[in-house]
Design a protein that fits this description.
By secondary structure, the protein is an alpha/beta fold. Helices cover 34% and strands 14% of the residues. Strands 1, 2, 3, 4, 5, 6, 7 and 8 form an eight-stranded parallel sheet that branches. The protein is globular. The structure holds zinc ion.
């Protein structure tokens, strides 16, 4: 293995030495249709027996996508907003489920999204909301359980709040604000290594009994936006995870992770 990957290899070896396995989950966003890129994603995950969670845009989701996914047992469909349209004013960051519209309207769309994907994908649909652009109104989480959602997923560290469980993602391989291709690999490797280190020795909190289980680390990808560099990095990253035996891939069908 090249020096580039050494920090990650060393960290994974430490997990193995300590007899620990890190839980990982994979979220891939923006699916509506079958495509060669989706085929590539599915073969990448199937070859390694990795469960993958597709964040599907409900209004545009097609029967063709449902037909493509039905025979693939390790795919879980999550609710990616409703139309994936920005409704925020120009001076605010993009969001579909942000504060720019009445909450009741957002909740209607969140309900429609879950209804439509449940109809199209049946048991493959897990009631987890992924607000587009990973942004949402602060009033949204408290209302989602009564719509049937069991979790909410965005990007970054989970907030220390009670309520609907958060299954966030933490490692996004694309440099959206720069090249729109692969984030420089040395940066990604440093990020994932740091995320693993934090989880291997989480800060102790003696007043917490039992200790909070540590949350799965979330990998975020967007198959429609991957170029050769992104696919190649992902292949090597998965190889590292698979061969290390220090990783346990988890899925939405397991006991829900606590918040
Ligand atoms: Zn999206």
């Amino acid at each position: 293995m090249t020096a580039l990957w050494e920090p990650l290899v060393t960290e994974l070896a430490a997990w193995r030495r300590e007899g620990k396995r890190v839980p990982l989950w994979w979220r891939d966003d923006d699916a509506t249709l079958p495509s060669p890129a989706l085929d590539r994603l599915l073969s990448l995950t199937a070859e390694r027996a990795i469960p993958v969670h597709l964040a599907v845009i409900p209004r545009d989701a097609t029967l063709a996508l449902s037909d493509r996914l039905r025979p693939v047992a390790a795919v879980h469909v999550l609710v990616h907003g409703w139309t994936h349209r920005n409704h925020e004013p120009p001076d605010r960051k993009k969001a579909e489920f942000g504060s720019g519209r009445p909450l009741a309207l957002v909740l209607d769309e969140a309900r429609s999204g879950l209804d439509r994907l449940t109809t199209l994908f049946g048991d493959q649909c897990a009631p987890i909301l992924i607000p587009p652009w990973n942004r949402f109104s602060p009033d949204l989480p408290a209302e989602l359980a009564r719509l049937g959602y069991v979790a909410l997923s965005a990007f970054g560290p989970e907030p220390k709040v009670h309520g609907l469980p958060r299954w966030n993602t933490h490692l996004d391989v694309i440099d959206w604000h720069g090249s729109r291709s692969l984030t420089p690999p040395d940066q990604l490797i440093a990020q994932v290594t740091a995320l693993l280190k934090e989880r291997r020795h989480p800060p102790s909190a003696p007043h917490q009994i039992p200790a909070r289980p540590f949350r799965p680390l979330g990998l975020l990808t967007h198959h429609l936006d991957h170029d050769a560099a992104v696919w190649s990095f992902l292949e090597t990253l998965l190889e590292q995870f698979t061969t290390s035996e220090a990783v346990r891939w988890v899925s939405a069908k397991e006991t829900p992770w606590t918040c």
